TrEMBL record:
Location of the DOMON domain: 39-147
Name used for this protein in its record: DOMON domain-containing protein
Species of the source: Caenorhabditis nigoni
Example GO biological process: regulation of glutamate receptor signaling pathway
InterPro entries xref list: DOMON_domain, FRRS1L
Length: 228
């Protein structure tokens, strides 16, 4: 889906999203959005899965890219969130859950265009967080939106329906699995950890380990990603 209709996502689309199933339980999401003017420190582009064509009670995957001010140079982030009515709340995932649900994240700002891609599990193999994380092997209306973001939440998207940056919604319900029918997908969540298992663990030291001069401090670095 792209806006305006017939636009080139490398040149003049104000917002767009593509889906493809690239493997068992793996859905690749690619999104593009024009940068907001005046520029903001953090901008998101998001895809939502809904049971109707109106915002509310939707599962959302949002990519946040930072390009200005105190956040310049930060790596892109992807979050799962939930539209509760007309508000959006992020769903907390620990590092292991996040690494299980999302892989292959890449994104940057190129020539005033926000581009982002990631792979997401279709049937999440993590806890559903009291129903806030959905099995996407089902028909949904697909939505895409962009707007400014903050470190812990996204702000409201464009509300003017005549604006090219107003969210786009599919005309029909779509099951993402239909974009790759030659793969088998899990039908449920199979926990990888047996919570009833009793393990013998090595005792922790009673004293803090002494520092070693041979330890080399880690040097942070930033990767640049190019696609499209």
């Amino acid at each position: 889906m792209f806006r305006p209709r017939g636009c080139d996502p490398n040149l003049d689309c104000t917002i767009g999203v593509t889906l493809s199933v690239i493997g068992p339980n793996q859905m690749k999401v690619q999104m593009v959005a024009a940068t907001i003017y005046p520029p903001v420190q953090q901008q998101y582009v998001a895809i939502a899965f809904s049971h109707d064509r109106a915002m509310g009670n939707d599962s959302v995957s949002e990519c946040v890219i930072s390009n200005m001010g105190e956040f310049v140079g930060y790596e892109p982030e992807v979050y799962v969130s939930y539209n509760k009515g007309k508000s959006n709340d992020r769903v907390f995932l620990n590092d292991d859950e996040h690494a299980e649900l999302f892989t292959g994240l890449a994104g940057e700002v190129v020539d005033t265009r926000l581009v982002c891609e990631f792979t997401q599990q279709i049937m999440p193999q993590i806890d559903n967080k009291n129903g806030l994380i959905w099995n996407l092997n089902s028909p949904f209306y697909i939505m895409a939106a962009t707007g400014s973001a903050q470190p812990d939440e996204v702000n409201a998207h464009e509300l003017n329906r005549d604006s090219h940056s107003f969210p786009i919604t599919s005309d029909e319900m779509i099951n993402p699995v239909t974009f790759g029918n030659n793969f088998e997908h899990p039908t449920g969540f199979a926990p990888k950890i047996n919570t009833n298992r009793i393990e013998k663990r090595v005792m922790r030291p009673t004293e803090a380990p002494k520092s070693s001069a041979s330890l080399i401090p880690l040097i942070p670095f930033v990767l640049s990603f190019f696609f499209f």
